[in-house]
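Per reviewer request, we include the raw input and output of the structure prediction for the construct analysed in the revised manuscript.
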Amino acid sequence: MKGQATPYLMFDGNAKAALEFYREVFGGEVSNLQTYGEADYPTPPEASDRIIHAQFKKDDLFLMASDAFPGNPITVGNNISLTLEFESEEEIQNIYQALSEKGTVFMELQDTFWGATYAKVKDAFGVIWDLNYTKS
């Protein structure tokens, strides 16, 4: 695996406002901001301005954020996950299998439109993991 687990914050349509707030509070920088409408992803018109992905960085503080897709409610407890970046297909498959064995799969391990193999899993202890292997 590469680096540390990265917090991924999920919002209900107000990710852009939250990121701007964090930028003002911490003095960091928002980058790689993309909306659902800009992504190659089937999106209803009411979701086109929602954030599909963004990053925030200030020195060693790094987090990622997005808005939930319409119809996926956000409640305290499911609005944060930990993202792991992997260095090989074998590594992500092994971790995915182990976490999902007694956990809940939110998104099966699959190839994505952003050029990665990705899965989202809640483990047996209720921790939500985003697993990502960017193909070269």
